[in-house]
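Subgroup meeting minutes
Present: P.N., E.W., G.H.
Scribe: E.W.

1. P.N. recapped why we're keeping a running log of single-chain structure predictions: easier to compare across weeks, and new members can see raw inputs and outputs side by side.
2. G.H. added today's entry (417 aa).
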Amino acid sequence: MSDQRREKIKKQRGSKPPRDQKGWDPKQDQRHHRDHLTHKALSAASDMGHIVLSYDDNRMAADLFGEYDQNLARIEQKLNVEAIARGNRVTIKGPGDLCDLAKMVLDALYHRLQEGDTIEQADVDGAIRMAQASDEQLMLPEVVPDRNEGAGKMTFAQIATRKKKLTARTATQDAYIRAMDRADLVFGTGPAGTGKTYLAVAYAAMLLERGVVERIILSRPAVEAGERLGFLPGDMKEKVDPYLRPLYDALYDMMPPDKVERELEAKVIEIAPLAFMRGRTLSNAAVILDEAQNTTSMQMKMFLTRLGENSKMIVTGDPSQIDLPSGEQSGLVQAMELLGDIPSIVRVQFTAEDVVRHELVMRIVNAYDEEARRRAQARRVLERERSRNIEAEERHAQRGFENPDMLTAYPEEDQAE
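Output recorded in log:
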Protein backbone atom coordinates (compact mmCIF):
# COMPACT_ATOMS: atom_id res chain seq x y z
CA MET A 1 0.00 0.00 0.00
CA SER A 2 1.41 3.44 -0.92
CA ASP A 3 2.15 6.12 1.65
CA GLN A 4 -0.55 8.38 0.17
CA ARG A 5 -3.13 5.63 0.59
CA ARG A 6 -2.15 5.10 4.24
CA GLU A 7 -2.45 8.84 4.97
CA LYS A 8 -5.87 8.97 3.34
CA ILE A 9 -7.15 6.07 5.45
CA LYS A 10 -5.76 7.63 8.64
CA LYS A 11 -7.56 10.92 7.91
CA GLN A 12 -10.83 9.08 7.27
CA ARG A 13 -10.56 7.25 10.59
CA GLY A 14 -9.88 10.45 12.45
CA SER A 15 -10.09 9.92 16.24
CA LYS A 16 -12.02 6.64 16.13
CA PRO A 17 -11.01 4.26 18.93
CA PRO A 18 -8.78 1.37 17.95
CA ARG A 19 -10.43 -1.95 17.22
CA ASP A 20 -9.14 -5.29 18.34
CA GLN A 21 -7.95 -7.94 15.94
CA LYS A 22 -11.53 -9.05 15.22
CA GLY A 23 -12.68 -5.54 14.41
CA TRP A 24 -14.79 -5.12 17.57
CA ASP A 25 -15.49 -1.57 18.68
CA PRO A 26 -16.40 -1.61 22.43
CA LYS A 27 -18.17 1.75 22.41
CA GLN A 28 -20.09 0.89 19.29
CA ASP A 29 -21.21 -2.35 20.95
CA GLN A 30 -22.36 -0.45 24.05
CA ARG A 31 -24.40 1.88 21.87
CA HIS A 32 -26.01 -1.09 20.12
CA HIS A 33 -26.82 -2.71 23.49
CA ARG A 34 -28.31 0.54 24.82
CA ASP A 35 -30.42 0.95 21.68
CA HIS A 36 -31.63 -2.66 22.00
CA LEU A 37 -32.72 -2.15 25.61
CA THR A 38 -34.47 1.10 24.71
CA HIS A 39 -36.31 -0.60 21.85
CA LYS A 40 -37.28 -3.48 24.14
CA ALA A 41 -38.60 -1.09 26.79
CA LEU A 42 -40.57 0.87 24.20
CA SER A 43 -42.03 -2.36 22.82
CA ALA A 44 -43.07 -3.47 26.30
CA ALA A 45 -44.61 -0.08 26.95
CA SER A 46 -46.50 -0.23 23.68
CA ASP A 47 -47.93 -3.64 24.73
CA MET A 48 -49.36 -2.20 27.96
CA GLY A 49 -53.02 -1.32 27.89
CA HIS A 50 -55.05 1.44 29.52
CA ILE A 51 -58.83 1.18 29.25
CA VAL A 52 -61.41 3.40 30.94
CA LEU A 53 -64.99 2.12 31.16
CA SER A 54 -67.94 4.24 32.23
CA TYR A 55 -71.44 3.03 33.14
CA ASP A 56 -74.65 5.07 33.02
CA ASP A 57 -76.42 3.34 35.90
CA ASN A 58 -74.60 3.99 39.18
CA ARG A 59 -76.46 1.24 41.03
CA MET A 60 -75.63 -1.36 38.37
CA ALA A 61 -72.03 -0.16 38.38
CA ALA A 62 -71.87 -0.77 42.14
CA ASP A 63 -73.33 -4.26 41.67
CA LEU A 64 -70.85 -4.87 38.86
CA PHE A 65 -67.84 -3.89 40.95
CA GLY A 66 -69.14 -5.86 43.93
CA GLU A 67 -69.14 -5.11 47.63
CA TYR A 68 -65.83 -3.45 48.48
CA ASP A 69 -64.91 -3.93 44.77
CA GLN A 70 -64.57 -7.68 45.34
CA ASN A 71 -65.52 -8.51 41.74
CA LEU A 72 -62.81 -6.20 40.43
CA ALA A 73 -60.35 -7.77 42.86
CA ARG A 74 -61.27 -11.19 41.47
CA ILE A 75 -60.63 -9.99 37.91
CA GLU A 76 -57.28 -8.55 39.02
CA GLN A 77 -56.32 -11.86 40.62
CA LYS A 78 -57.36 -14.03 37.68
CA LEU A 79 -56.17 -11.85 34.77
CA ASN A 80 -53.14 -10.14 36.32
CA VAL A 81 -54.38 -6.62 35.57
CA GLU A 82 -55.09 -3.57 37.71
CA ALA A 83 -58.71 -2.42 37.95
CA ILE A 84 -59.38 0.83 39.83
CA ALA A 85 -62.96 2.02 40.42
CA ARG A 86 -63.91 5.67 40.83
CA GLY A 87 -67.64 6.24 41.08
CA ASN A 88 -69.23 4.71 38.00
CA ARG A 89 -65.90 4.46 36.15
CA VAL A 90 -63.26 1.77 36.20
CA THR A 91 -59.72 2.04 34.84
CA ILE A 92 -57.99 -1.13 33.67
CA LYS A 93 -54.20 -1.25 33.36
CA GLY A 94 -51.92 -4.07 32.34
CA PRO A 95 -50.83 -6.05 29.28
CA GLY A 96 -52.95 -5.03 26.33
CA ASP A 97 -54.44 -8.44 25.59
CA LEU A 98 -55.36 -9.00 29.25
CA CYS A 99 -56.96 -5.56 29.44
CA ASP A 100 -59.11 -6.52 26.47
CA LEU A 101 -60.14 -9.72 28.27
CA ALA A 102 -61.00 -7.77 31.42
CA LYS A 103 -63.14 -5.38 29.37
CA MET A 104 -64.90 -8.35 27.76
CA VAL A 105 -65.63 -9.81 31.20
CA LEU A 106 -67.00 -6.55 32.60
CA ASP A 107 -69.13 -5.92 29.52
CA ALA A 108 -70.61 -9.42 29.74
CA LEU A 109 -71.36 -9.09 33.46
CA TYR A 110 -72.92 -5.64 32.99
CA HIS A 111 -75.09 -7.04 30.22
CA ARG A 112 -76.31 -9.71 32.64
CA LEU A 113 -77.21 -7.02 35.17
CA GLN A 114 -79.16 -5.20 32.48
CA GLU A 115 -81.08 -8.43 31.85
CA GLY A 116 -82.11 -8.53 35.50
CA ASP A 117 -79.61 -11.13 36.72
CA THR A 118 -77.53 -10.94 39.87
CA ILE A 119 -73.78 -11.50 40.01
CA GLU A 120 -71.89 -13.74 42.40
CA GLN A 121 -68.21 -14.62 42.53
CA ALA A 122 -68.86 -17.85 40.63
CA ASP A 123 -70.43 -15.76 37.85
CA VAL A 124 -67.29 -13.62 37.67
CA ASP A 125 -65.10 -16.72 37.46
CA GLY A 126 -67.37 -18.16 34.79
CA ALA A 127 -67.27 -14.98 32.72
CA ILE A 128 -63.47 -14.99 32.90
CA ARG A 129 -63.31 -18.59 31.70
CA MET A 130 -65.78 -17.86 28.92
CA ALA A 131 -63.78 -14.84 27.77
CA GLN A 132 -60.54 -16.82 27.78
CA ALA A 133 -62.13 -19.66 25.80
CA SER A 134 -63.54 -17.22 23.26
CA ASP A 135 -60.28 -15.27 22.98
CA GLU A 136 -58.04 -18.31 22.58
CA GLN A 137 -60.54 -20.14 20.35
CA LEU A 138 -59.74 -23.40 22.09
CA MET A 139 -63.31 -24.67 21.96
CA LEU A 140 -65.57 -25.87 19.19
CA PRO A 141 -67.83 -23.21 17.67
CA GLU A 142 -70.86 -24.39 19.64
CA VAL A 143 -68.85 -24.16 22.87
CA VAL A 144 -67.64 -20.60 22.40
CA PRO A 145 -70.32 -18.12 23.47
CA ASP A 146 -72.04 -16.18 20.72
CA ARG A 147 -70.94 -12.63 20.09
CA ASN A 148 -73.24 -9.72 19.42
CA GLU A 149 -71.22 -7.95 16.73
CA GLY A 150 -73.07 -4.67 17.18
CA ALA A 151 -72.53 -4.45 20.91
CA GLY A 152 -69.28 -6.41 21.09
CA LYS A 153 -70.67 -8.56 23.89
CA MET A 154 -70.74 -12.27 24.58
CA THR A 155 -74.14 -13.89 24.98
CA PHE A 156 -74.38 -16.94 27.22
CA ALA A 157 -76.93 -19.71 26.92
CA GLN A 158 -79.67 -19.36 29.52
CA ILE A 159 -82.35 -21.45 31.19
CA ALA A 160 -85.30 -19.39 32.41
CA THR A 161 -88.18 -20.56 34.60
CA ARG A 162 -90.76 -18.43 36.39
CA LYS A 163 -88.83 -18.70 39.64
CA LYS A 164 -85.24 -18.51 38.48
CA LYS A 165 -83.04 -17.74 35.50
CA LEU A 166 -79.73 -19.55 35.08
CA THR A 167 -76.88 -18.42 32.86
CA ALA A 168 -73.98 -20.64 31.84
CA ARG A 169 -70.93 -19.96 33.97
CA THR A 170 -68.40 -21.86 31.88
CA ALA A 171 -67.90 -22.59 28.20
CA THR A 172 -68.76 -26.24 28.79
CA GLN A 173 -71.99 -25.33 30.55
CA ASP A 174 -72.81 -23.14 27.57
CA ALA A 175 -72.22 -26.09 25.23
CA TYR A 176 -74.30 -28.34 27.51
CA ILE A 177 -77.34 -26.07 27.37
CA ARG A 178 -77.05 -25.64 23.60
CA ALA A 179 -76.70 -29.42 23.20
CA MET A 180 -79.93 -29.97 25.13
CA ASP A 181 -81.60 -27.49 22.78
CA ARG A 182 -80.69 -29.33 19.60
CA ALA A 183 -80.32 -33.03 20.50
CA ASP A 184 -82.84 -35.58 21.75
CA LEU A 185 -80.23 -37.55 23.73
CA VAL A 186 -77.42 -35.81 25.61
CA PHE A 187 -74.70 -37.36 27.78
CA GLY A 188 -73.22 -34.98 30.33
CA THR A 189 -70.16 -36.50 32.01
CA GLY A 190 -67.55 -35.10 34.35
CA PRO A 191 -66.62 -34.49 37.99
CA ALA A 192 -68.93 -33.43 40.78
CA GLY A 193 -69.82 -29.77 41.14
CA THR A 194 -69.93 -28.90 37.44
CA GLY A 195 -73.72 -28.42 37.28
CA LYS A 196 -74.58 -31.45 35.16
CA THR A 197 -77.66 -32.54 37.12
CA TYR A 198 -78.75 -29.07 38.21
CA LEU A 199 -78.80 -27.69 34.67
CA ALA A 200 -80.56 -30.80 33.36
CA VAL A 201 -83.37 -30.49 35.93
CA ALA A 202 -83.63 -26.74 35.27
CA TYR A 203 -83.88 -27.38 31.54
CA ALA A 204 -86.61 -29.99 32.07
CA ALA A 205 -88.57 -27.55 34.27
CA MET A 206 -88.32 -24.90 31.57
CA LEU A 207 -89.64 -27.30 28.91
CA LEU A 208 -92.57 -28.23 31.17
CA GLU A 209 -93.48 -24.59 31.84
CA ARG A 210 -93.38 -23.76 28.14
CA GLY A 211 -95.56 -26.74 27.25
CA VAL A 212 -92.87 -28.38 25.12
CA VAL A 213 -93.25 -31.58 27.17
CA GLU A 214 -96.13 -32.88 29.27
CA ARG A 215 -94.16 -34.40 32.14
CA ILE A 216 -90.77 -34.75 33.78
CA ILE A 217 -89.31 -38.10 34.75
CA LEU A 218 -86.24 -38.15 36.99
CA SER A 219 -84.43 -41.36 37.82
CA ARG A 220 -81.37 -42.65 39.63
CA PRO A 221 -79.97 -46.15 40.18
CA ALA A 222 -80.38 -46.91 43.89
CA VAL A 223 -77.00 -48.62 44.16
CA GLU A 224 -76.74 -48.00 47.89
CA ALA A 225 -79.83 -50.16 48.42
CA GLY A 226 -78.84 -52.65 45.76
CA GLU A 227 -82.17 -51.92 44.04
CA ARG A 228 -83.74 -54.03 46.83
CA LEU A 229 -86.02 -51.51 48.48
CA GLY A 230 -88.69 -53.83 49.84
CA PHE A 231 -87.09 -54.20 53.27
CA LEU A 232 -86.93 -50.44 53.87
CA PRO A 233 -89.75 -48.88 55.98
CA GLY A 234 -92.53 -46.78 54.46
CA ASP A 235 -94.19 -46.62 51.07
CA MET A 236 -92.28 -46.44 47.79
CA LYS A 237 -91.79 -42.66 47.95
CA GLU A 238 -90.39 -42.87 51.47
CA LYS A 239 -88.13 -45.76 50.48
CA VAL A 240 -86.43 -44.02 47.57
CA ASP A 241 -86.51 -40.36 48.65
CA PRO A 242 -83.09 -40.44 50.38
CA TYR A 243 -81.45 -41.55 47.13
CA LEU A 244 -83.31 -38.99 44.99
CA ARG A 245 -82.99 -35.96 47.28
CA PRO A 246 -80.59 -34.03 44.98
CA LEU A 247 -83.22 -34.13 42.23
CA TYR A 248 -85.87 -32.76 44.60
CA ASP A 249 -83.52 -29.96 45.67
CA ALA A 250 -82.99 -28.87 42.08
CA LEU A 251 -86.74 -28.97 41.38
CA TYR A 252 -87.58 -26.77 44.38
CA ASP A 253 -84.98 -24.25 43.17
CA MET A 254 -86.65 -24.02 39.77
CA MET A 255 -90.35 -24.13 40.73
CA PRO A 256 -92.48 -22.92 43.67
CA PRO A 257 -92.80 -25.62 46.35
CA ASP A 258 -96.60 -25.79 46.15
CA LYS A 259 -96.45 -26.32 42.40
CA VAL A 260 -93.85 -29.06 42.78
CA GLU A 261 -96.12 -30.85 45.26
CA ARG A 262 -99.14 -30.55 42.96
CA GLU A 263 -97.20 -31.83 39.96
CA LEU A 264 -95.83 -34.74 41.99
CA GLU A 265 -99.31 -35.73 43.14
CA ALA A 266 -100.65 -35.48 39.57
CA LYS A 267 -97.72 -37.59 38.28
CA VAL A 268 -96.72 -34.73 35.98
CA ILE A 269 -93.36 -34.90 37.73
CA GLU A 270 -92.24 -38.42 38.53
CA ILE A 271 -89.16 -39.37 40.51
CA ALA A 272 -88.42 -43.08 40.65
CA PRO A 273 -85.53 -45.57 40.83
CA LEU A 274 -84.19 -46.85 37.56
CA ALA A 275 -85.61 -50.34 38.18
CA PHE A 276 -89.15 -48.98 37.79
CA MET A 277 -88.54 -47.78 34.21
CA ARG A 278 -88.71 -51.28 32.74
CA GLY A 279 -91.48 -51.92 30.22
CA ARG A 280 -92.50 -48.26 29.81
CA THR A 281 -92.49 -45.93 26.79
CA LEU A 282 -91.71 -42.35 27.80
CA SER A 283 -93.35 -40.04 25.26
CA ASN A 284 -93.78 -36.23 25.42
CA ALA A 285 -91.44 -36.14 28.39
CA ALA A 286 -88.15 -34.75 29.60
CA VAL A 287 -86.33 -37.77 31.02
CA ILE A 288 -83.22 -37.46 33.19
CA LEU A 289 -81.01 -40.28 34.42
CA ASP A 290 -78.61 -39.11 37.13
CA GLU A 291 -75.56 -40.97 38.50
CA ALA A 292 -75.60 -43.08 35.35
CA GLN A 293 -72.09 -44.38 36.01
CA ASN A 294 -73.70 -46.78 38.50
CA THR A 295 -75.93 -48.46 35.92
CA THR A 296 -75.07 -51.86 34.52
CA SER A 297 -74.89 -52.46 30.79
CA MET A 298 -78.36 -54.03 30.72
CA GLN A 299 -79.88 -51.25 32.84
CA MET A 300 -78.49 -48.57 30.53
CA LYS A 301 -79.81 -50.36 27.45
CA MET A 302 -83.21 -50.72 29.11
CA PHE A 303 -83.31 -47.03 30.01
CA LEU A 304 -82.19 -45.67 26.63
CA THR A 305 -84.77 -47.78 24.80
CA ARG A 306 -87.58 -46.15 26.84
CA LEU A 307 -87.28 -42.98 24.72
CA GLY A 308 -90.59 -42.21 23.02
CA GLU A 309 -91.87 -39.60 20.57
CA ASN A 310 -91.40 -35.88 21.29
CA SER A 311 -89.15 -36.64 24.26
CA LYS A 312 -85.72 -35.51 25.35
CA MET A 313 -83.38 -37.68 27.37
CA ILE A 314 -80.44 -36.38 29.42
CA VAL A 315 -77.97 -38.79 31.01
CA THR A 316 -75.48 -37.50 33.58
CA GLY A 317 -72.70 -39.20 35.49
CA ASP A 318 -69.08 -39.24 36.58
CA PRO A 319 -67.12 -42.26 35.27
CA SER A 320 -64.50 -41.70 37.98
CA GLN A 321 -67.02 -42.49 40.77
CA ILE A 322 -68.32 -45.93 39.83
CA ASP A 323 -69.81 -47.81 42.81
CA LEU A 324 -70.62 -51.05 40.98
CA PRO A 325 -69.21 -54.37 42.24
CA SER A 326 -65.69 -55.14 41.11
CA GLY A 327 -65.58 -56.47 37.57
CA GLU A 328 -68.97 -55.00 36.58
CA GLN A 329 -68.74 -52.68 33.57
CA SER A 330 -70.45 -49.32 33.85
CA GLY A 331 -73.37 -48.92 31.48
CA LEU A 332 -72.51 -45.24 31.04
CA VAL A 333 -68.96 -45.96 29.89
CA GLN A 334 -70.13 -48.65 27.49
CA ALA A 335 -72.94 -46.49 26.09
CA MET A 336 -70.57 -43.64 25.28
CA GLU A 337 -68.25 -46.07 23.49
CA LEU A 338 -71.06 -47.67 21.46
CA LEU A 339 -73.15 -44.59 20.67
CA GLY A 340 -70.49 -41.96 20.15
CA ASP A 341 -70.77 -41.93 16.35
CA ILE A 342 -74.56 -41.48 16.13
CA PRO A 343 -75.17 -37.91 14.87
CA SER A 344 -78.29 -37.14 16.94
CA ILE A 345 -76.56 -38.08 20.20
CA VAL A 346 -74.31 -35.46 21.83
CA ARG A 347 -71.79 -35.95 24.61
CA VAL A 348 -70.53 -32.98 26.64
CA GLN A 349 -67.43 -33.65 28.74
CA PHE A 350 -66.93 -31.48 31.83
CA THR A 351 -63.55 -31.08 33.52
CA ALA A 352 -62.26 -29.80 36.84
CA GLU A 353 -62.08 -26.33 35.28
CA ASP A 354 -65.89 -26.33 35.11
CA VAL A 355 -66.42 -26.86 38.84
CA VAL A 356 -68.69 -24.08 40.11
CA ARG A 357 -68.76 -25.06 43.78
CA HIS A 358 -66.12 -24.02 46.29
CA GLU A 359 -62.71 -23.46 44.71
CA LEU A 360 -61.34 -26.29 46.86
CA VAL A 361 -63.57 -28.74 44.99
CA MET A 362 -61.63 -28.11 41.79
CA ARG A 363 -58.34 -28.78 43.58
CA ILE A 364 -59.74 -31.94 45.16
CA VAL A 365 -60.93 -33.21 41.78
CA ASN A 366 -57.54 -32.46 40.23
CA ALA A 367 -55.75 -34.32 43.04
CA TYR A 368 -57.88 -37.44 42.59
CA ASP A 369 -57.57 -37.26 38.80
CA GLU A 370 -53.79 -37.06 39.09
CA GLU A 371 -53.75 -40.09 41.39
CA ALA A 372 -55.95 -42.00 38.93
CA ARG A 373 -53.55 -41.13 36.10
CA ARG A 374 -50.57 -42.37 38.14
CA ARG A 375 -52.31 -45.65 38.90
CA ALA A 376 -53.31 -46.10 35.27
CA GLN A 377 -49.72 -45.46 34.19
CA ALA A 378 -48.44 -47.98 36.75
CA ARG A 379 -50.94 -50.58 35.51
CA ARG A 380 -49.83 -50.03 31.92
CA VAL A 381 -46.18 -50.48 32.91
CA LEU A 382 -46.99 -53.72 34.76
CA GLU A 383 -49.04 -55.02 31.83
CA ARG A 384 -46.22 -54.29 29.37
CA GLU A 385 -43.70 -56.00 31.66
CA ARG A 386 -45.99 -59.01 32.03
CA SER A 387 -46.47 -59.21 28.27
CA ARG A 388 -42.72 -59.07 27.70
CA ASN A 389 -42.14 -61.85 30.23
CA ILE A 390 -44.78 -64.05 28.60
CA GLU A 391 -43.29 -63.45 25.16
CA ALA A 392 -39.79 -64.25 26.45
CA GLU A 393 -41.02 -67.51 28.00
CA GLU A 394 -42.78 -68.46 24.79
CA ARG A 395 -39.65 -67.76 22.72
CA HIS A 396 -37.51 -69.76 25.16
CA ALA A 397 -39.94 -72.69 25.01
CA GLN A 398 -40.05 -72.52 21.20
CA ARG A 399 -36.27 -72.60 20.95
CA GLY A 400 -36.23 -75.62 23.26
CA PHE A 401 -38.64 -77.53 21.04
CA GLU A 402 -36.64 -76.64 17.94
CA ASN A 403 -33.35 -77.77 19.58
CA PRO A 404 -33.89 -80.81 21.88
CA ASP A 405 -30.31 -80.53 23.16
CA MET A 406 -31.36 -77.33 24.98
CA LEU A 407 -33.86 -79.30 27.07
CA THR A 408 -32.12 -80.17 30.36
CA ALA A 409 -34.46 -82.81 31.66
CA TYR A 410 -33.62 -84.85 34.70
CA PRO A 411 -32.00 -88.15 33.52
CA GLU A 412 -33.44 -90.17 36.38
CA GLU A 413 -36.98 -89.07 35.58
CA ASP A 414 -36.47 -89.71 31.85
CA GLN A 415 -35.15 -93.23 32.54
CA ALA A 416 -37.95 -93.98 34.97
CA GLU A 417 -40.47 -92.98 32.34
